[in-house]
Structures
1.
Amino acid sequence: AQNSTLRQHLQLHLRRFPHRCGDCGLRFQRPHRLLLHRAHHSGEFPYKCPQCGRSFLLRRLLDVHLLGHAGRQPLRCEGCGAAFATAA
């Protein structure tokens, strides 16, 4: 598994993105990233906020959104600003 992970990482440096979206042509290094992207074309956002009805592609994003309804701020990565509902 470690060799596979290293090979995938090296593809970033070589700018090899073999997984192509059939709708828009955008390319991805990993197949799961393509699957996440395709949800934008299909409109399938399975995680719906029970309070306001807004939908999200990832559960993590819904969790961060729910913090706002509770009057709390998400935790933020100091390096890139990504938001998280929990530290775990």
Note: The radius of gyration is 16 Å.
2.
Amino acid sequence: MTAQNFSTQPPESSPQIPWAKNAAVDSAQAGGIRLENITKSYPSRTGEPTTVLQNLNLHIPAGQITVFVGPSGCGKTTSLRMINRMVEPNSGTITIDGVNVHEKNPYELRRGIGYVMQQGGLMPHRTVAQNIATVPRLLGASRKEAQARALELLNVVGLDSSYAKRYPSQLSGGQVQRVGVARALAADAPVLLMDEPFSAVDPVVRTDLQKELLRLQGQLAKTIVFVTHDIDEALLLGDTIAVFAEGGRLAQFGTPEEILYSPADDFVRSFVSRSVAGLLDEQTVRQARARRLATSREAQNGAVEGEKSE
């Protein structure tokens, strides 16, 4: 598959988000996402509850990528799915820019939060354009407006208009994920949830998608929560990283440098050392941060050039 780039030009139009009235607020002024005293457990066959999360307290900064990383079953996906109320906590409070999500209708809430799943989650009986246009239509856009939005977003994620009439079965794994990102951006929501979105594609495509996500984020500055089990991916993508331990314990929350050079405990130290690459040294992190800066500058320069040409 040839590498395709996300457009660095911001979408020209977006539908009205029903709950996030401050969607266009400067990220420096926004409150981000707060999870306070969150606990979650499920009943087990023995009758004793199985704890998934233990008194989780976390502030996810606005306009940044926060990565949830940890082994399987540690509660990272459960935490992400609580933000859009696909899972409800036993106790605790979650707010987005100061708005309590538990006071909002869950269906309206989800229409104002982008969500990208591991397998794309596209509706197989609908075309690419129809998949992307679903949320704008739900938010009241006309069929013509929703179609225009879909074509606009295909360009944003590096796919030309010829893909609009294709069905998900006619796409490669990387193309499915691109369409999934386009659909998540369709409402221009300030928050984007990504649940292991690149884990099902091959390493080459995965690297392309990671780089392009950074480029897109450099332009749009969404509040992104990204779930992965791969510490290398977390170090590359995350402005901040939440390391979850088994039993639903938040072991550490900090920058990539803090996670790598100042692990909070033996679990974090051991988890980082089990990196797939096995080369998590100072040079590796410097290279990852340099790539972040380069893609961000490239996006900003592209936006400036676009303005000049207009």
Note: The first strand starts at residue 33 and ends at 42.
3.
Amino acid sequence: MSILLINIHYSIRLALILVLTLSFSAFSFSGQIELSNALPGSFGLRKSVVSMHEQRYSNLVRQQTDFSCGAAALATVLRYGYGLRVQEEDMLDGLFAVSDIDKVREQGFSLLNIKHYLERIGMRGRGYKVETDTLLNIKIPTIVLLDLKGYKHFVVLKKTEEDFVYLADPALGNKIMPKQKFMDSWNGIVFAVIGRGFNKNSILVNPRPQLTARALNNTFAPLSNAQLLDYGFRHSDLF
């Protein structure tokens, strides 16, 4: 009996150490932990761990300069909405080709610059003036401009709920912002990227897509004008 109790206590102690180790690792690093022989009866068990930092910046393109938030936001939409293998550098090269470089370095890119670049690669960009109460109806990721204490900053608006908005911020990562705080910073315009190959189950708007054969049948169809109405764009485009 005493030997059995010792074995039980030993197993419990190992289990507690394992739980604490995994909990700490989630905050400090990412990787794969080998658990074989750590517990009685385990057979090569592996545990993938993703750090909090990686989670914050997952599924978005980070900006590398103080003026490239627009380029990174566009790269985020093209990569995770359209499946294009693009980096921020690709967007910078393309946007500089249709922009005034000195003006960009001083003020950053504009939505008009982004629109002109998209036209060069066979896609379209449309800016819409959207009322607050229609944000809930928009079902595709869009690029929006926020005024953060005087600093103009492009982010990707992934989706809107009743009291919160979900953003992919090229500088600060994925975040959830109170809707009222967003409204106080937003200029009322959303910019939609339109082209072939849009994934309606994009992780930008659906973090855990549950795909079925029926859903996949029309997943990557191009967006039509009629579908844009269905996605919440019921106002005339601005440019």
Note: The two ends are 80 Å apart (CA to CA).
4.
Amino acid sequence: MESELWPVLDDFEDSVDAISETLKPLLEQNLPKHASRLPLFDKAKLYIITTYALETLLYTYLETSATPTADHPIMKELTRVRQYFQKIRDIESKEPKQEEKAPAASSSARVDTRENLVLDKAAAERFISAALAGNDKYDIERAENTRLQKERAKEKLEELGEGVKDPLGQRAPESSGDDDDEDGGVRLVMSDSGDEAEKSASATPAPKTDGVEDINDEERAQINSEKKRKRELEAKEDNDLKKKSKKGKSKKAKKEKSTKKK
């Protein structure tokens, strides 16, 4: 019996020495201070392993002192710590699976959202108008462009109205009213019936072709001069707009420089 006991005691001493050497770096420093530097998962593992090591030493002491351990509270504590070990293993085994599933899930979700994506144009217009509402420069440019478009459309209508002539190439007789003189419009002489046209033709002598050609040339020259004047006005307005935009850009650049210097 004694011959069998001594080798077991030697093995036990060797195990104690190995455990002491392993735990020496951990026992020489403050455990909570060392654990505070670790990540949360490693911190939990450190506390569980330390608890299991201490309880194992207690269990070994009880066994060597011939104390019955079947109903001892140390067995419940060891079982509880082993459950924590199992939880750690489950977490470590789930992490790689979650990392593999995450790219696939994100790609599928992205595909689903792109397929079902519908643009709400009304909402987009509201967002854009709300974002640009406080931009004074944008509001000024938009109002100026709208005004120029209206003026150009009005000028084109006036040009079309001035180019209208009566079929016979004659101007309508000037009316006695002041409104017709101020407007300077051209009225067409229209006959209600063929008899009235014949009477007016017989009553008034036929105009000379030279006079008609002279009148048409004068009108063409007047129209061309008005078009030229309108083009000059448009060019002047465009130049003014460019100058205003340049001034706004220069002011903005100066403000940015001043803010950078500050």
Note: Residues 212-262 form one domain.
